[in-house]
Specification:
about 140 residues, mainly alpha, two-stranded antiparallel sheet, about 55% helix, about 5% strand, binds zinc ion
C-alpha cells in the first residue's frame, strides 16, 4: 500500500478512536498516526517488509516497559499498518513484497507462490494480535 494511503487510513482510524474513546485525547494521536507509516522505513535500507518493522514486536517491547495509553496506541499503529499491507491476491506476491530477514525472504523461496500467502498470514496475525492487545488494554486496564 502506498504511504499516502497508509497516512490517510491512519488519520481516519485514530481520529475516530479519539472520538469513540474518552481517554484518547486528540493530542495523543499525532505520533501513532506517524508510526502508522513508520514500518515502511525499511524501504530506505534497500529491502521492503522487514520482519521486525512489519510486526508488533518493537512497540510491544516498549509497551512492556511503559504500560500506558500512548504505547498501546503505538502497538495499534503497527498492527493497523500490517493489516493495511495484507494482499487480497497473495499468490501474486513474490520477492519485493514478502516478509524478509534483512534481504532474505523468510518464507520459502522469494519466487514461490507460498511466500506471498505466508506473508499475508504473517501480516494478519500481527494485526489481530495488536488489535486483541488493544481490546485487552481497554477491557481490563482502564
Ligand atoms: Zn508496509
Amino acid at each position: 500500500m502506498k504511504k499516502i494511503l497508509h497516512l490517510v487510513l491512519g488519520i481516519v482510524l485514530f481520529v475516530a478512536l479519539s472520538y469513540a474513546i474518552e481517554e484518547i485525547r486528540i493530542t495523543m494521536i499525532f505520533y501513532p498516526i506517524l508510526l502508522n507509516i513508520a514500518p515502511d522505513i525499511d524501504i530506505s535500507f534497500g529491502s521492503h517488509r522487514n520482519f521486525l518493522t512489519h510486526s508488533i514486536a518493537i512497540p510491544i517491547v516498549i509497551l512492556a516497559f511503559n504500560w500506558d495509553v500512548f504505547n498501546i496506541l503505538c502497538v495499534l499503529a503497527f498492527a493497523f499498518h500490517c493489516l493495511c499491507d495484507v494482499s487480497l491476491r497473495p499468490s501474486k506476491w513474490k520477492g519485493y513484497y514478502t516478509i524478509k530477514f534483512y534481504h532474505h525472504t523468510i518464507f520459502f523461496g522469494a519466487e514461490d507462490k507460498a511466500a506471498g500467502a505466508m506473508t499475508s498470514l504473517w501480516l494478519v496475525v500481527q494485526g489481530i494480535l495488536g488489535i486483541l492487545l488493544f481490546i485487552f488494554y481497554w477491557m481490563f486496564w482502564i
